[in-house]
């Protein structure tokens, strides 16, 4: 056997290998987070698409009234939170795979902050929709 092949360095520590963690240290937990959020998005997205078709051609007041209902507001909020969590987890994988050196950590922080901020904006939009729906009832 070639002596250069026997000196290949292993990127993971022995403990990391025993725990099943990859170089990023997230292992199966990260994998499960992606799968669970994707599975959760299936029914939520289907519900949303059906609702959009039902509301096709509806007036603004009708849409506000629909969005002000607790079940619809809860489903919209769950869809937004799950979507941006899933996007954040997926983008983190891309950053971990393709961004190296000094830019890695700032890029990870930027991705987390951006997905959290945009998701928060979506949740506040639902809250505004609910408040608008309540104020129109009175």
Structure description:
With 138 residues, the protein is mainly α. The chain has one domain: Up-down Bundle (3 helical TM bundles of succinate and fumarate reductases), CATH 1.20.1300.10. It has five helices and no strands. It has helices at residues 14-19, 27-54, 60-68, 70-98, 104-137.
Q: Keyphrases for this structure?
A:
single chain; 138 residues; mainly alpha; 3 helical TM bundles of succinate and fumarate reductases; 77% helix; elongated; electron transport; iron
Q: Bin the helical content.
A: over 70%
Q: Specify the number of helices.
A: 5
Please identify, by name, the CATH architecture: Up-down Bundle
Q: What name goes with the CATH superfamily? A: Fumarate reductase/succinate dehydrogenase, transmembrane subunit
Question: Which runs of at least 5 residues are low in confidence (pLDDT < 50)?
Answer: none
When the domains are counted, the total is 1
Averaged pLDDT: 86
CATH fold name, please?
A: 3 helical TM bundles of succinate and fumarate reductases
Measured between the Cα atoms of the first and last residue, the distance is 83 Å
What is the radius of gyration computed over CA atoms, rounded to a whole number of angstroms?
A: 22 Å
**Would you state the CATH class?**
Mainly Alpha
- Total number of β-strand segments? 0
Largest sheet: none
The percent range for strand residues is under 5%
- Coarse morphology: elongated
The assigned structural class equals mainly alpha
Order of helices and strands: HHHHH
Function: Membrane-anchoring subunit of succinate dehydrogenase (SDH).
Protein name: Succinate dehydrogenase hydrophobic membrane anchor subunit
Transmembrane segments: 36-53, 73-94, 109-131
Pathway: Carbohydrate metabolism; tricarboxylic acid cycle
């Amino acid at each position: 056997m070639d002596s250069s092949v026997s000196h290949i360095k292993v990127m993971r520590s022995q403990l990391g290998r025993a725990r099943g963690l990859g170089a990023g240290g997230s292992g199966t937990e990260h994998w499960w987070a992606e799968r669970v959020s994707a599975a959760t998005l299936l029914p939520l997205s289907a519900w949303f698409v059906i609702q959009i078709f039902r509301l096709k051609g509806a007036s603004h007041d009708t849409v506000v009234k629909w969005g002000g209902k607790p079940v619809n507001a809860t489903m919209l909020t769950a869809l937004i939170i799950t979507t941006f969590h899933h996007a954040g987890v997926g983008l983190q994988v891309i950053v971990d795979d393709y961004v190296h050196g000094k830019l890695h950590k700032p890029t990870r922080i930027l991705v987390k902050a951006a997905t959290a901020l945009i998701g928060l904006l979506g949740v506040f939009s639902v809250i505004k929709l609910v408040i608008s729906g309540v104020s129109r009832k009175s």
